[in-house]
Structure formats: C-alpha cells, structure tokens
Amino acid sequence: GAVVSQHPSRVICKSGTSVKIECRSLDFQATTMFWYRQFPKKSLMLMATSNEGSKATYEQGVEKDKFLINHASLTLSTLTVTSAHPEDSSFYICSARGTEKVYGYTFGSGTRLTVV
Amino acid sequence: GENVEQHPSTLSVQEGDSAVIKCTYSDSASNYFPWYKQELGKGPQLIIDIRSNVGEKKDQRIAVTLNKTAKHFSLHITETQPEDSAVYFCAASNTGFQKLVFGTGTRLLVSP
User: Fold this and answer.
1) Hey, of B39, B99, B106, which one would you mutate to test binding to chain A, going by the most A CBs within 10 A of its CB?
2) Closest in A42, A97, A110 to B43, CB measured
3) Computed from CA positions of residues A69, A71, A72, A77, in that sequence, does the dihedral angle turn out positive or negative?
4) Does B102 touch chain A if contact means CB atoms closer than 8 Å?
C-alpha cells in the first residue's frame, strides 16, 4: 500500500531558529501534498496544499513567510518553520495524494515540534 | 467551503458493544468520505472510506453508511475491543480531491 514517511518524529529547537520537516512518498508519486497542524485534543487544521513544481496554496490565516513549503519532486515535500516561537509548538502532519486514479490520502506519522 | 460536523465528541462503551459515530457535511459537491483512527502521538490511519455512488460499505467489524440526500454519514464498529480505543475522525473531500476537511473528532474508549 501507499506509504508516507515523515521526519523527524520529534524535534526541539530554540526560539528564533528554523526547523525543516520532510515528507516523502515511498512507493508512489505524490502530485499533491498537504500540511496539517494539530493542537492537543483538536482536529487537523489544513495549513497549505502543494502541487509538485508549483507554489503552495496557503489557507487563510497561515503565514506564508513563517511556514515555507517546498514540493520540488513527486516524492518529497518539506515544511520549514522559520524563526520559530513557542506558539509554533504543535503536531505537524503531512499527507500525500498520488497521480494514479487511486482515491484517498496517505498520512505521515507526524512531527512533534517543541520550541523552547 | 465545506464544513464537517461530528458527534459525539466522546463515546464510552463496554467491550463487545457497538459504537456509532455520526458526521454531517455541508457541500453537496463532496463525494469522498474517509474515516481515520488516530492514536496518541501518531498520524491518522485510514480505516474505511466510501464514495458518493455507494450507500454502504463494510469491512469486517467496521461499516460506513452514507445518506447523500441528508448529507450525513456514519461509522459503525461492532464487537468493540479495547484496542479500538482511539480518536476517530471523519472527513469529506470535494470533487478532484483538492482538499480534505476533517470533523472535530470522537474519542472512543472501550472498557474491558
């Protein structure tokens, strides 16, 4: 089945630094990748949608300059949290959808970001 | 845009009982409805999904029903087991699968 690998699973960084999270589709080509943010005991909130080779489309209220998304290949998308602050601490999850006529979205295992 | 509501927010059952979680959606153009199980500290895992041209789908102890007219769909888990305890999310996707909108989640607790 479709597998999406997300790294790192946990990261702690200092305020003001940047953190990069990777999302890879291991056995399929992902034309579209999605990045979500999840607060404790809350639902997944879509941050942005990225199509390979195109600029990401951000949801309303999501800062483009703070959350940089790159989808340079059909198997890799990255989310960079720039100049991180404690309020950016959260659980970030990526999801990928393939090129084939296969319905569904495959999710990564998530990244727990803690900014100290 | 699409809005998905989910009830109940918490559900406690005894092992062996059935559990039902219900969702409603607002966009009549939505045509794909997956259900996810999320365990603590992990990403969502697809447990079952249904497309708008089907009214019901079953996979062992799990079933999903869809009523397009009423714009609601439900997850049914029979013979619940303690390992079914988790948070369950419903979701809806519009035509072209450009965006997946999640419900608010249901915390299911199955007591031995």
Assistant:
1) B99
2) A110
3) positive
4) yes
Tell me if B34 and A104 make a contact (CB, 8 A cut-off).
yes
φ and ψ at A64, to 5 degrees?
A: -65, -40
Helix (H) or strand (E) holding B50: strand B45-51
Contacts of A79 (CB under 8 A, 6+ apart): A20, A21, A23, A35, A47, A67, A68, A69, A92, A94
Residue A105: list chain B partners with CB under 8 A: 34, 46, 93, 97, 100
Say if strands B106-111 and B10-14 run parallel, antiparallel, or are unpaired: parallel
Classify B79 in phi/psi space as left (phi over 0), alpha (psi -120 to 50) or beta.
left
Q: Does B100 touch chain A (CB under 8 A)?
A: yes
One digit per residue, the tens of pLDDT, for chain B of length 112 reads 889 999 999 999 999 999 999 999 999 989 889 999 999 999 999 999 998 888 999 999 999 999 999 999 999 999 999 999 999 999 998 766 678 899 999 999 999 9
Q: How wide is the angle at C-alpha A106 spanned by C-alphas B27 and A63, nearest 5°?
A: 70
